[in-house]
């Protein structure tokens, strides 16, 4: 029997304080504290009381009367955990689930200095030996790299394409800048990329983007596998699995719950889903 679970209520005072902290950080000391309080519909007296507590604990600091900045505690936390580190740690259990289900190697990568940097990896199958975390690979010939290049600004993409020559790693590698430009435009439109044995002769790779809170592409994830893995309907199954994993990462990064829907191929049931439909995603520990 499905149990009805009510979401845990957030204490109203805490919710008000977090709203106030958020607008202080976003504003960066540009507007008065009273104006920020109005933005979150707080009476001036309530905002003052909450501001005193936030300042006492180092969440905000007073720049001058009526102007506040992020406090030392927040800045210390930001120095300790950057987005790159958090993204890798959040992604690893999700990648492991996907890798175990497909019995193939799964990566998460970002674009750094025109190269793909692998931040997280779950190893399985023939591709397990060829990469490691923090390793870099050329972007133009990999699934993750194509997704990331397809989502930079047109000017940045043009600069990248003008920085050739591009080396053919296999007979399938696209090395002509004009052909590569058209290919990346197709990737941008379709929302996924395929490495058709362009890095290694006997391996192919399917990749999709991971979006940030501002809807920009912050990373990409991929499944690397022998060619038969992506034949027929299995490519669509793999795409669905990758997209669900990407959404799970996105929602974990944004602090929102997620229930996986199709991390089930090629079998009939996903290990990311509990037998109890109200439990949610096992990997990310979220609740529906």
Ranges with pLDDT <50 over ≥5 residues?
257-281, 283-288
Q: Mind telling me which CATH architecture of the largest domain this is?
A: 2-Layer Sandwich
Structural class: alpha+beta
CATH homologous superfamily caption of the largest domain:
GAF domain
Pfam families: HTH_IclR, IclR_C
InterPro entries: GAF-like_dom_sf, HTH_MetabolicPath_Reg, Tscrpt_reg_IclR_C, Tscrpt_reg_IclR_N, WH-like_DNA-bd_sf, WH_DNA-bd_sf
GO molecular function: DNA binding; DNA-binding transcription factor activity
Keywords: DNA-binding, Transcription, Transcription regulation
Present the secondary structure layout.
Blueprint: H1 12-27, H2 33-39, H3 44-56, E1 60-64, E2 67-70, H4 72-80, H5 83-102, E3 105-112, E4 115-122, E5 136-138, H6 143-150, H7 154-161, H8 177-190, E6 193-195, E7 204-211, E8 217-225, H9 234-254
Antiparallel strand pairs: 1-2, 3-4, 3-8, 4-5, 6-7, 7-8
Domain IclR-ED: 73-255
Domain HTH iclR-type: 11-72
InterPro entries: GAF-like_dom_sf, HTH_MetabolicPath_Reg, Tscrpt_reg_IclR_C, Tscrpt_reg_IclR_N, WH-like_DNA-bd_sf, WH_DNA-bd_sf
């Amino acid at each position: 029997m499905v149990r009805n679970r009510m979401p845990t209520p957030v204490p109203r005072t805490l919710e008000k304080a977090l709203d106030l902290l958020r607008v202080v950080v976003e504003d960066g000391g540009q507007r008065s504290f009273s104006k920020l309080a109005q933005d979150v519909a707080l009476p001036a007296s309530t905002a003052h009381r909450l501001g005193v507590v936030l300042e006492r604990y180092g969440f905000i600091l007073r720049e001058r009367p009526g102007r506040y900045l992020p406090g030392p505690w927040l800045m210390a936390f930001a120095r300790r955990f950057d987005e790159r580190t958090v993204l890798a740690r959040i992604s690893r259990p999700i990648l492991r689930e996907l890798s175990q289900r497909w019995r193939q190697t799964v990566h998460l990568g970002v674009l750094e200095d025109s190269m793909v940097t692998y931040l997280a990896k779950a190893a399985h199958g023939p591709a397990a030996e060829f990469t490691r975390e923090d390793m870099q690979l050329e972007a133009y010939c990999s699934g993750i790299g194509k997704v990331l290049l397809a989502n930079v600004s047109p000017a940045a993409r043009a600069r990248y394409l003008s920085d050739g020559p591009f080396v053919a790693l296999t007979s399938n590698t696209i090395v002509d800048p004009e052909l590569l430009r058209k290919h990346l435009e197709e990737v941008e439109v379709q929302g996924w990329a395929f490495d058709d044995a362009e890095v290694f002769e006997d391996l192919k790779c399917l990749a999709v983007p991971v979006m940030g809170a501002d809807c920009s592409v912050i990373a990409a994830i991929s499944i690397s596998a022998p060619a038969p893995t992506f034949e027929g309907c299995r490519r669509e199954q793999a795409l669905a699995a990758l997209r669900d994993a990407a959404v799970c990462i996105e929602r974990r990064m944004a602090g929102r719950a997620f229930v996986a829907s199709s991390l089930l191929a090629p079998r009939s049931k996903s290990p990311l889903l509990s037998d109890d439909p109200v439990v949610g995603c096992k990997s990310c520990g979220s609740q529906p």
